[in-house]
Amino acid sequence: MFVLSEMKDVIRITPEHFHQSLTDSLAALLNRKLANKVVLNVGLCIALCDIIEIGHSYIFPGDGSSHTEVIFRCIVFRPVIEEIIIGKIKNCSREGVHVTLGFFDDILIPVNALQHPSRFDETDQAWVWEYPKEDGEKHDLFMDSGESIRFRVTSETFEESLPSGPPGAECTPVKTVAPYRIIGGINEPGLGLLTWWEAPDQDDGGDNEEEDNED
Amino acid sequence: MEIVNVNAAALCNSEVMEMLQKLKDTTQKKHKREGYLATVIYETLHYLQDTECKNQTAESVEKFLKAMKKFKLTKTEKLMMLNTPPRTELEIQLIVQESEERLSEDDVSNIIDIINKLFPPNKAS
After folding, report:
1. DSSP per residue over B28-74, as a string?
2. Is B124 an interface residue toward A (CB < 8 Å)?
3. Same domain, B24 and B71
4. Do B101 and B76 belong together in one domain?
5. B43 interaction partners in chain A (CB closer than 8 Å)
6. Which chain A residues are closer than 8 Å to B10 by Cβ?
């Protein structure tokens, strides 16, 4: 789920930071630059892990800052494809189920990757797995917001966010696209809400009734 | 900025939690906290606190990895087992690809035993 990524960058340290040690100011500036940011094709950077190498610092004419080349490692959120992750349901929509991990929200389980057969309940705004019972009837399993859900990561997309075009001309409505999105699936036995698959030893049967009462 | 190596190393959740906790403590001392960093550390720790990794230590993780050697699992599979410890056969089937061919029934129950011993399940949840 998390990896370390090695990166190289030139960091500009303005003179007001010169009283600090070089490592301290580099760490602070790198964290400011990367924390909670998505780097294209790398993932969501969480925080700086360590600095591996600090190169020479240069001063350019007309600028009192020092420019330092630095190689460092960063803690990055980048799940492996096929990885199993537990998250919480943020909300449901016609598109599918939106899942959040708290620090990362752009996870979608599309309609075709839900348990089969599922339907969207308009009044409750929730997806429902119509679990078939032996006697041919269906048992409705609701996917309410806030429930813990286990899903498999099936694909990821990185989107380059470009600066908006010049004013006037063709003013395309500003659309904020998520820079990093994860597509998940729960169409396998064992995936979905944790309560669906809990071991029957902890007074089961009561579990199902509870869900019936909710609706 | 230049990316030298996207995947220099994989981290398990408990390692991330330990590092972030340390970072949180050191940045708090300096009382000048960076907005984004504080947010992401808080949110990530909040997520990790609800997972099983909060009971894992470097020692128990190492013991687990040693015990898993004989089952010929891939690195990712072992990592997933640490992050979401499987307690049922079904969960092992999800994590291990083609588990029916690669693991015998005894292997599966062995793995579950080892996990239950090293990472006792949370009674509270």
Report:
1. HHTS---HHHHHHHHHHHHHHHTSGGGG--HHHHHHHHHHHGGGT--
2. no
3. no
4. yes
5. 102-103
6. 2-4
Q: Judging by DSSP bridges, how do beta strands A126-132 and A118-121 pair with one another?
A: antiparallel
Q: How confident is the model at residue A197 (pLDDT cuts 50, 70, 90)?
A: confident
Range of the domain at B62: 57-118
Identify whether the C-beta of residue A47 lies closer than 8 Å to the C-beta of residue A37. no
Contact B10 A7 (CB under 8 A): no
B67 and B83 co-located in one domain: yes
Q: Are residues B80 and B112 in the same domain?
A: yes
Q: How many residues does chain A have?
A: 215
Number of domains in chain B: 2
Domains and CATH numbers, chain A: 2-77 (3.30.1490.120), 84-165+172-214 (2.40.50.140)
**Alpha carbons A42 and A77: distance in angstroms, whole number:** 9
Report the relative pairing of strands A2-13 and A66-77 from DSSP bridges.
antiparallel
The predicted pLDDT at position B23 comes to: 87
Question: pLDDT at position B30, please?
Answer: 63
Residues B72 and B103 in one domain: yes
| pLDDT tens sequence across B44-78 | 999 998 888 888 888 888 988 998 888 888 888 99
Q: What are the pLDDT digits (tens) for B79-108?
A: 998 888 888 888 888 888 888 888 888 888
Q: Locate B66 and state its tokens.
A: 């040693």
Regarding whether B62 and B109 lie in a shared domain, the answer is yes
